[in-house]
Amino acid sequence: MPASHPRTGGVTVVMPVCGNEDTVLQALRSVERQTRPPEAVVVVDDGSKDRSADLVAEHFPAARLIRQENSGPAAARNTGWRLAEKEWVAFLDADDTWEPAKLESQLRASHLLPTLGLVACNWVPPGAAPGGTTGSRPKVAYRLRALDLLLLNRFQTSTVLVRTDVLEKTGGFDPALDGTEDWDLWLRCTRQCDVVNLEAALVRYRDSPNSYSKDGERYRASMRRMLARELPTSGLSDMRQAEIRAWHELRLAVALLLRRRHGPARAAFAETFRSDPAATLAATGRYLVPFLLRRKLRRIRPVQPLRLGRGATLEL
């Protein structure tokens, strides 16, 4: 999967903003504190009704500020990366922050493979105590296959550094997929380049209860559309595709259960088993049980939620 290099080296940060006056300056300061600063910052104000855009213009005049009517985060990110004139694009949401070594670590990792086009990393909540791998230099990266990403969206958008030409080849984010547009893009990137994830938590991610991905029904509908498009191109057997569909329905049912929505959770479990009993039983053993066990283990040590493919570890 050779990739062309149409641009000069360097990084453009792309930040969508929509009503983030309380957090946008903190996010931009974390960019300013990078041990390897980016060459450019593009902030796309997506129809904010507050002072977000004015604060950016006042405190970060070097950032390129674009104002547009509210079109959603996918469209705002697309506006931003299409203006990028550097080799790499780093996405940062206006309510998240980066650890100082984030870009430096990712750019160092970008030389691991000649066909590497996307480098992500782990993340922690804003209030997490320093320590562990947070903010430290990673020593290991994990190479991910398309199957690894079909099983789970392993990247939060603010963790991703991606080549601009890969974004051009994929077309960027699909605004029609509210809540899964990032997952969908990472999957399409695996068809254009190699993808790795760094072991270190280099991003502090604020999990908003009002985010698109928290709208259960909209997220489920978006996920189903995305899987209906991606699974037939995966090269997997019909049975494995059915298992993966069942696995995602099961994990959403578990999410309802964890939110104490017991009635909807029971209905979701029943619907999944009724629609394809064989695939659901297979998915329970292959994916759901290991996922739940490893969820428990995460209290002891950080692990991937589902096992990656063999030979996935790369030394930095």
Radius of gyration: 19 Å
Provide the domain count.
2
Number of helices: 11
CATH architecture of the largest domain: Alpha-Beta Complex
- What is the CATH superfamily label of the largest domain? Spore Coat Polysaccharide Biosynthesis Protein SpsA, Chain A
Characterize the overall form.
globular
Number of strands: 10
Strand content: 15-25%
Residue-averaged pLDDT: 89
Tell me the CATH topology of the largest domain: Spore Coat Polysaccharide Biosynthesis Protein SpsA, Chain A
Estimated structural class: alpha/beta
Distance between the termini: 22 Å
SSE string, helix = H, strand = E? EHEHEHEEHEEHEHHEHHHHE
Largest sheet: 10 strands, mixed
Question: Strands, helices and their partners?
Answer:
Elements (H helix, E strand, L loop, with lengths): L7 E10 L6 H9 L7 E7 L5 H8 L4 E5 L4 H9 L4 E6 L5 E2 L3 H8 L6 E9 L15 E5 L1 H6 L9 E3 H7 L10 H9 L4 E11 L11 H15 L7 H21 L3 H14 L1 H21 L15 E3 L1
Helix pairs in contact: 8-9, 9-10, 9-11, 10-11
Protein architecture, described:
With 316 residues, the chain is α/β, with parallel strands linked by helices. The chain has helices spanning 24-32, 52-59, 73-81, 102-109, 146-151, 164-170, 181-189, 216-230, 238-258, 262-275, 277-297; strands at residues 8-17, 40-46, 64-68, 86-91, 97-98, 116-124, 140-144, 161-163, 194-204, 313-315. The chain has 11 helices and 10 strands.
What descriptive keywords fit this protein?
ten-stranded mixed beta sheet, 2 domains, Spore Coat Polysaccharide Biosynthesis Protein SpsA, Chain A, alpha/beta, 316 residues, disordered N terminus
